[in-house]
Specification:
561 residues; alpha/beta; Rossmann fold; 6-stranded mixed sheet; 23 helices; globular
Amino acid sequence: MIWPILIVGITMVVTALLRRRAGTLPWGTARRALAIALGLVFATSLIFSATLTVTSPGEAYFNTFVRAWEFAGGALLALLVSRFPAMQASGSGSRAALASLLAWAGVAVILVASVTYTDASPFPGTMALVLVAGALVVLLAGAQRGRVTVSGVSELRPIASIGTWSYSIYLWHWPLIVLAPFALQRAIGDLDKWVIVGLAVLLGALSSRFVEDPARSRRWGRRPWREFSFAVVVPLVIVLVAALQVAAVHASIAEAAERAEAARAAAESAAAESAEDASEGEPRVCYGVTAALEPELCIDPFTARSAIDTAYAATDLDPNWRLTQLHEEWRTCTYGDPMGPAGTLALVGDSHAAATIPAFHEYFAKAGWRVDTFTRFACSAVHSEADKVSHWEESFREGCATWGARVQQELRERTDISVVVYHVFDSRVFIPGDAALQAQQRDAMREVWSSIEATGKQVLLLRDIPVTADTDIPTCLSQITVPATAPCSQPEDAAVLTDPITEAAGVDVPMIDITDLFCADGTCMSYIGGVVAYADSNHISGTYARSLAPILGDRLLAALE
């Protein structure tokens, strides 16, 4: 909606200014002025897109102005072709062959980008240039004759229909993706995604037929109220249903959080009262981490017997996500006992460390320890030089290194901190198979640990949690049929990684291994004692973190002794 208004606005302003100066307005002059204005939009928006994608990728993906340069590119091509129409004329013979080759080259560029880009690709940013360039090349090639040309294939009925409805499908698909989890009250699965695709196509076809086409052709017929009602009433109904669903799901999640806390409190109370029965080996219903530690004493410790509230599980992280984001320079928070009569502990690492905060806060608040956090998204706090940071692009590496240098300085200079606990996403920091990079990371970790220990502080490593083979656990659990034993689990030899950081810890600093709090009999579980252990594909859930707080806290203090 904004783009047509922008084009019309630019045209009106340019026309008014030029007419005031020249009195008459040749189309060529207006076209050049419009091209300059669109060029400025293209350059400004592209720079903004590249910058925001690095500093705040989530915001960049949805920001309208980040995408303006893509529309400007198409508009500039249209102006160019209108000025030089021979550029797009397919003609015959070698010229037609060249146009066909150009069109297929553009399609190939789009397909390669579609296959090679992943969820880790910084998009849109400059990476969108590849897709936009491919689309512009296809448009520049123009129409070609023949069945094996891009034009010939695109004229096939199914493809032509999708092309006709494409803009309406584009408008419908995202609301459906966003609303589906709220409507279903669970994470969407593979079948759900295909249903969403079908609904988007159906709604796109209907809105294209009854709204978009009449609006474009101005053929409203004798009863235009039908088109208006479809265009107005349907979105209003969707908004109303969405609002009700969102409110209902938020209430459901809040209730689920209360139930989880009540279940944990009841389990702790029951465990204290039934200590004698447990010692006699009588099986009982276990909650959370107890099921992993004593599965032989528990009734179905890893079995889901009723439907799992995966909508709650998928949100079971700190809602404020207290870690330094990509667009931030610094953030630190205090947990546990703010007065810290027993001492101050620093929790250092990336989002995996941030996800364990509920456990640290729960335990150390009772133990009289203050917990200060030094966590940043996807940073290990080990490197102070950008060229040694693995992954991501240059601006990320620079930000991560600057933050890491400040963390190291804070840890060395703060005399109130006596214990430093590191916890990082091992499989992201250490790339499997890259021996040189692994050695570099290991040496850097040892150097940092030594510099901190030289100030009299004790350094500990909390081993990373078992990996899930990039499986989103709430989504996986939403697709199981209950009862199910060990759903969405992984073999321990594949889920528990041995890497340079654990090898270094065994030599240089004590390591607290919590593998047994997730794994039993060679299998690492995702559903433990009635609790979903992961909130996504790699972060421990807040409920399970609070469940293991007593065990984790005791092991940390034992390592200090």
